[in-house]
Write a structure and sequence with these properties.
Elements (H helix, E strand, L loop, with lengths): L13 H16 L8 H8 L3 H13 L3 E3 L6 E3 L1 H14 L1 H16 L2 E8 L2 E8 L15 E3 L4 H8 L3 H18 L5 H14 L2 E4 L6 E9 L5 E10 L5 H29 L17
Antiparallel strand pairs: 1-2, 3-4, 3-8, 4-5, 6-7, 7-8
Helix pairs in contact: 1-3, 5-9, 6-8
Length: 285
């Protein structure tokens, strides 16, 4: 990655420039994939427009920010994605999940995914291809959707407390209605109730026609949602009988992930015993 040089700001020290640039990066990264216009970045950062422009140019030179040619919105760049993947490997979640993803793809012959939460959105951290000749391409590594859109994303949303669910759906309502008409708030709430009742999520081709997915959330030892494992296939491979088979496989791998996470927490805290994973209680069935 090229060096991030931010010394051009008038009257700004080097460290002050870096702090402000990282603040812009965080601001842009919290938004959906379509990015933010310059005016919103200026308003959100409380910096003047010339300073914001200089800092954005520096971030663009480093590959951390890109500007969409049509909308002129600023969004995270390719280098930010690479760093995110490296950070995930560093913290162990992706590396920890690889055996589960390979087992799921190998046993089902379909595509498996690891999805993690980022505030009100879900990000596909990895896609593991199966061997079945007809595959679904609804979700790619790095794709970002509002929580609830997609099987893994829905599994995570349904695993959150009711207050968090209501807040997230309200925050995402505008983008859901504009870009995801099959995932209107009331439809999502019905999906959440069904997911909680079944113990796994289903996306019946609502994001991409004929592309179905099933997901299962897994948890940190303290009960927080860590991520979700999911499997996607064409609709003809997602009948009721196979849903039961896939649910068992996803449940097995989710349990393995929780066991590995528990071991990791024990290793980090020495030999101190940790309680068994605790599910956060949700009020709606």
């Amino acid at each position: 990655m090229p060096p991030l040089s931010l010394a051009a700001g008038a009257g700004l020290s080097g460290s002050q420039s870096v702090d402000r640039a990282l603040g812009l990066l965080s601001l842009i990264g919290r938004e959906p994939a379509e990015g933010l216009p310059l005016g919103e970045i200026v308003a959100g950062s409380r910096l003047n427009k010339p300073t914001v422009r200089r800092l954005l140019l520096a971030l663009m030179r480093a590959g951390l920010v890109e500007q969409e040619p049509l909308t002129r919105h600023y969004c995270l760049g390719e280098e930010a994605f690479v760093l995110g993947v490296l950070a995930a490997r560093r913290h162990g979640l992706l590396e920890m999940a690889m055996d589960s993803l390979r087992r799921l793809a190998g046993e089902t012959r379909d595509t498996s995914f690891l999805t993690v939460r980022r505030e009100n959105y879900a990000i596909c951290l990895h896609r593991e291809e199966g061997t079945y000749p007809v595959r679904t391409h609804a979700l790619q590594t790095g794709d970002q959707h509002p929580l609830g859109v997609g099987a893994g994303s829905l599994a995570m949303l349904a695993a959150l407390p009711d207050d968090d669910v209501d807040r997230i759906i309200a925050a995402n309502e505008a983008v859901l209605l504009e870009r995801y008409p099959g995932f209107a708030p009331q439809a999502l709430k019905a999906d959440i109730a069904e997911t909680r009742q079944r113990g796994f999520s289903i996306n019946p081709g609502r994001l991409v026609t004929s592309s179905w997915g099933m997901g299962r959330a897994f948890y940190y030892p303290d009960g927080r949602v860590a991520g979700a494992l999911s499997v996607a296939a064409i609709d003809s491979r997602m009948g009721t009988t196979r849903q039961a088979e896939l649910s068992a496989l996803l449940g097995r791998e989710a349990a393995r992930m929780e066991a590995l996470l528990a071991q990791m927490f024990v290793a980090r805290r020495g030999s101190e015993a940790r309680p068994a994973p605790r599910r956060i209680k949700t009020g709606r069935a």
